[in-house]
Amino acid sequence: MGELKDIATKAVDMVMRLGASECDVVAADSRYMSAEIEKGAMKQANSVADPGVAIRAFRNGCQGFSSCTGFSPSSIKEAARLAVELAKSGTPDPDFKGLPHKKRPTAVTGLHDPKISKLQPEQVVEMAIELADAASGHKDIYSVNASVAIAECSLVLANSNGFVGGQRLSSFETSIEAVAKSGPDMFSGIDGSWNRRLDRPVIESVGRNAMEHAVRGLKHQKIATGDYPVILDPLAAGFILATAIGGGANAESIQRKRSYLTGKLGQKIGSEALTITDDPTLEWANGSYSFDGEGTPAREKDIIKEGVLAAYLYDSYAAGKDSVESTGNASRGGSVWSFRKPPSISPSNLVVSPGDSTLDQMIADTKKGVYLRLTWDYPNLATGELSGLMMESYAIDKGELGGAIRQATIGIGTTDLLSRIEALGKESRDAFGVRTPAIKVSSARIGGSD
Residue 448's pLDDT is what? Predict the structure, then answer.
């Protein structure tokens, strides 16, 4: 970290001497490795080193951003010059109130796994093959697509208000699609994992889960259009809530009146059983950090508390505009930071508080309904309306899980979905940046396949 600290602090001094009123600098040294299997054959394997510096300069509230690859003094000097020139040439912005002041980063464990540093590209390839093999253990599996990606980053952030902080981040992600075939019928089972540590056992469980759902989906049935109770698997709940809450509570969208949550702070928007927090301090969670992309210390905060909208998510600019404190949600990218773009508002780890039901109990208590395991559609942020294809869903008849429903759709407003929650599962999993249990909604419109 010593070299990165020296680079970042010297760059801050350089930018200020060039005429900026404020600035921040990120010096990052990242490594990425991945392997991807398509239809049982290796499609590609990559290993990339990506060192670089990001510079934001401010003058009269106007921001100039520039970055460079590598750490050569000449490249950093040119990036500093460009950032300052852009800041000087822009229109003054009175809404900019300043960058965060110096504060101690939060002590957060589980941000970096040393085992990931020791991995070689051939080992990542081996894990992708292992994942594909785990999903291929049934006679009806026709093809498999699998990928394993690891990343790690050492970084230092420094700003002109005296903040200097460093952290090491790592990431281990898997994704798998198993396609089952029986005669003319085909069905895909999908799964994945998201973590900051190397978790070899999850390879077997994720692969087997995708295989089992692919085979289960070969048995299918029709369902009539109507209103039904819907049980959201954590995969479906995570994908929907990542946008519905993570995007809907974005203060920038609120200020521009582009979110369905605009003007609803302090209002009831969900069931009293529902509490959702944003928590960047979770050990080994992919969105955790000790300080955000501007140097604001990590802290847990309620977004929805017992059904009431309790907070929006802020970076320093949006916070200054509303005369509030930043919530520490300035993001420099995904689980591993990137120096190539300026920060933007994003949730860290959304956490849905669990309940006291099991998935089996939810299904058993449903006379006729739908179990939605996965959709790739998310709500319209401006209206909150969710209308999408249920990529993997199953009918529930007389308390038992039935066949897969083909080409069916779901339609429901997000606040209706949140308000109609009648049960939350005991067990949670991480999916798409959300730690969530299964969620049972009393009613949603299902466009059937009859």
Answer: 78
